[in-house]
Amino acid sequence: MTSENPPQTRLAVLHGGDLPPGSERIEADPRLASVRYATADRLHEVLPGAHALFVWDLFSEAVEDAWPKADSLRWVHAATAGVDNLMFDRLVGSDVTVTNSRGVFDEPMAEYVLGLVVAFAKDLPATLDNQRRREWRHRETERVGGKHALVIGTGPIGRAIARQLRAVGMTVEGAGRTARTEDPDFGTVVESSLQTAAPGLAEALPRADYVVLAAPLTDATRDLADAAFLARMRPHARLINVGRGQLVDEDALGRALRAEELAGAALDVTRTEPLPEDSPLWSAPGALISPHMSGDVVGWRDELVELFADNLERFLGGSPLRNVVDKRRGYVSGP
């Protein structure tokens, strides 16, 4: 996209109570006529006349509700990698450009997944439980090297995960929209659907010791890990979800864990966040639950703002924007 901007651009910022760090630097740009901040319940008040919107309230769905007030909007930037909360029909069908924060979370999330693999293989949760009980209990653990991982989602995050897992001696296979061979990070990529007649995900799942969900949430991936999906996994395999909670049928997962049809599951994302206190997943055998933190390392908020500031400079200067999303697919344009 190349922007032809009015001489005085109006920026709206949707936040959840905490403003982006370094906001004063953005406000000082003389090319901005105004920078107006709003929480979800007041977004409709700041959208009229705004040319750009910075969605700092990471997973808010308020943009859809306030969309009728977006009379001048030309660009929306999300401080997230996933943009499923912005893929509503009226925005998708408009000429408003959407960009995301691809690149900020890739390596931190890959490191987190590697940490979960090691935690499972070395039985670290049981070690911590035994320590709390002051119990000295010797066990044998598993090797990581030589295990097989299937990474579902072949975007930048999935690729970073594949590189981390391969670096410790694991074999890695990918599952994405298009099957292919000789991929630089995955080697083989199978089609990520159980509905296709061609050999693909249905044959790949039984090969995997670890299945990692790193796909964006789309109509094609919603409830991907359902009962049929889980039934194809090996009983000793583990499921790791760092994508979106809606990728997993949590009831089916809970049943599989309690029946010992799976060895474990690590969920950094859940369908409802925070995970309700009465959710059976908290106590499911082999479950590791973390509060949507796999990509959040020290300084991550500053990195998000730096990326937005760079794109704002491009927008104000009429240069092509970074991380433009293909709204029809919900993916970032490019390889």
TrEMBL record:
**Ranges where the D-isomer specific 2-hydroxyacid dehydrogenase catalytic domain occurs:** 38-325
Q: Which Pfam families match?
A: 2-Hacid_dh, 2-Hacid_dh_C
Q: According to the UniProt record, where is the region Disordered?
A: 1-20
- Gene Ontology MF: a single term: oxidoreductase activity, acting on the CH-OH group of donors, NAD or NADP as acceptor
The protein's name is: 2-hydroxyacid dehydrogenase
The answer to whether UniProt assigns keyword Transcription to this entry is no
Q: Keywords in UniProt for this one?
A: NAD, Oxidoreductase
Q: Which family does it belong to?
A: Belongs to the D-isomer specific 2-hydroxyacid dehydrogenase family.
Task: Check the record and name the InterPro entries matching this protein.
Answer: D-isomer_2_OHA_DH_cat_dom, D-isomer_DH_NAD-bd, NAD(P)-bd_dom_sf
Q: Which domain of life is it from?
A: Bacteria
Span of domain D-isomer specific 2-hydroxyacid dehydrogenase NAD-binding: 114-294
Segments forming a coiled coil: none
